[in-house]
Design a protein that fits this description.
Mean pLDDT: 87
CATH class of the largest domain: Alpha Beta
Oligomer: single chain
Radius of gyration: 40 Å
Order of helices and strands: HEEEHHHHHEEHHHHEEHE
CATH topology of the largest domain: Sufe protein. Chain: A
Number of domains: 3
Strand order of the largest sheet: 1-2-3
Distance between the termini: 103 Å
Low-confidence stretches: none
CATH architecture of the largest domain: Alpha-Beta Complex
Strand content: 15-25%
Largest sheet: 3 strands, antiparallel
Length: 289
């Protein structure tokens, strides 16, 4: 047995606005007795498109009666545009909630309201694309596009959710696999759409602050001690830092390097290259004799 709220019980045992509204000028009919649920909604709309009165006739369960009764109370006094903002969740919430298995009753109320307003405005009551899409549930005549619309609007994730909101799959269950395929396809497309809309994040790397003179000298000395001198010592040479003036680095070669005829080549192609890579690209290394 389902757990009904006090509000649902109140509107079931004492429904408001039940019966035909004789002077209604907007009527919406949803469902069929064959499917087990049918709702006829009557609206009286004035010249300013405001709903003056509403009533209903329904063939269905207690939740269908309660949902229809609550809906007629909710739309009174609203303009047609304001009434169209009412969702099936709004109807269920106004009743203090509906059992999940009965959410299709609130959906039926929302669809009847939309049908009545469309008829009053001279618009097509049924979505042609929805009606002409393939039938998924043959027990209740529910089409693929109707299932898709409800999956999106009500964020349905399981076959049972679809049964609760549309009744599709609530009969012989042979369509459950097809319903799940529709659900999976809807959310796959949703995720893809969100991924396309998600703005790309550009990482901006800040340029390092220029070294002050003391930092530059310390880094030059460290590079000489850790990388340049060990390499020169392999061939019996060495290097001494003499001075740093702006971007000019003065060094002196020692040992075998001092008498090497290729000392200027060593300074420019090795010492200067390493200091430019490790310290600053603008450095110019000069040999002092």
């Amino acid at each position: 047995m389902w757990d009904y709220s006090e509000k649902v019980m109140e509107h079931f045992f004492n429904p408001k606005n039940m019966g035909e509204l004789k002077d209604a000028n907007a009527v919406g009919l949803i469902g069929s007795i064959v499917c087990g649920d049918a709702l006829k909604l009557f609206l009286k709309v004035d010249e300013n498109n405001r709903i003056l009165d509403a009533s209903f006739q329904t063939f269905g369960c207690g939740s269908a009666i309660a949902s229809s009764s609550m809906l007629t109370e909710m739309v009174k006094g609203k303009t047609l545009d304001e009434a169209l903002l009412i969702t099936n969740e709004d109807i269920a919430n106004a009743l203090g909630g509906l059992p999940p298995e009965k959410m299709h009753c609130s959906v039926m109320g929302r669809e009847a309201l939309e049908a009545a307003i469309k008829k009053y405005r001279g618009e097509a009551i049924h979505d042609k694309e929805e009606d002409e899409s393939r039938i998924i549930c043959r027990c209740f005549g529910i089409t693929e596009n109707k299932i898709r619309r409800n999956v999106v609007e009500n964020k349905l994730k399981t076959v049972q959710d679809v049964i609760n909101y549309t009744k599709a799959g609530g009969g012989c269950s042979s369509c459950h696999t097809s319903i799940q395929d529709v659900i999976d396809d809807v959310w796959k497309k949703e995720l893809s759409a969100k991924a396309e809309l998600k703005p790309s994040i550009t990482v901006i790397q800040e340029k390092p602050l220029p070294l002050n003179n003391l930092q530059k000298i310390m880094k030059i000395q460290q590079t000489i001690e850790e990388e340049i001198k060990p390499a020169l010592m392999v061939d019996g040479g060495s290097l001494e830092l003499i001075d740093v003036a702006g971007n000019t680095v003065k060094v002196k070669l020692h040992g075998a390097c001092s008498s090497c005829p290729s000392s200027s080549f060593t300074i420019k192609t090795f010492v200067q290259r390493v200091l430019r890579e490790k310290v600053e690209a603008q450095l110019d290394v000069v040999e002092v004799r």
